[in-house]
Amino acid sequence: xxxxxxxxxxxxxxxxxxxxxxxxxxxxxxxxxxxxxxxxxxxxxxxxxxxxxxxxxxxxxxxxxxxxxxxxxxxxxxxxxxxxxxxxxxxxxxxxxxxxxxxxxxxxxxxxxxxxxxxxxxxxxxxxxxxxxxxxxxxxxxxxxxxxxxxxxxxxxxxxxxxxxxxxxxxxxxxxxxxxxxxxxxxxxxxxxx
Length: 194
Known about the structure:
It is a single chain. The chain has helices spanning 43-53, 57-61, 64-67, 71-88, 117-125; strands at residues 33-42, 100-102, 111-115, 128-135, 140-141, 170-171, 180-189. With 194 residues, the chain is α+β, with helices and mostly antiparallel strands. A 5-stranded antiparallel β-sheet has the order 1-7-4-3-2. Strands 5-6 form a two-stranded antiparallel ribbon. The protein starts with 32 loop residues before the first strand and ends in a 5-residue tail after the last strand.
């Protein structure tokens, strides 16, 4: 077992550091993975941008059902939309953010994504179904051990909510740095014919 050094270190994603490095993302609908996108979301920067642009901005980005969400949720929806744009390789001519409709329910699990217009044509051409989500609360990384601190009793594997175990990726805010949400979207091959 490697002793804690009290500082963060980069995590190899292949588990070569002797620990199992696992990031669990909810299962997305469909079959074979066609593409994926990720985006780091800083809630404070999103709020600042929204204030600078003004009240017309949400009308250009979100449809009516999405605009009913709380400001923090609007930021997450925007992050998921950015991920979809990465999957399709950019917005096609004639398409806009409002053509990507993300379900406002689903918490941190997989949310269905509906596409309209040119983006819907892309989905039909690729036989794609999309889902996205948010892993909220901070940058995902391995935090130093919390041994010796007051914490909840461990589960059968010796893990606690504060210390999920070596190699586990979880939200870990850094002092002086913003807490970032990890937004994601995945396009998978539809299991039924269009």
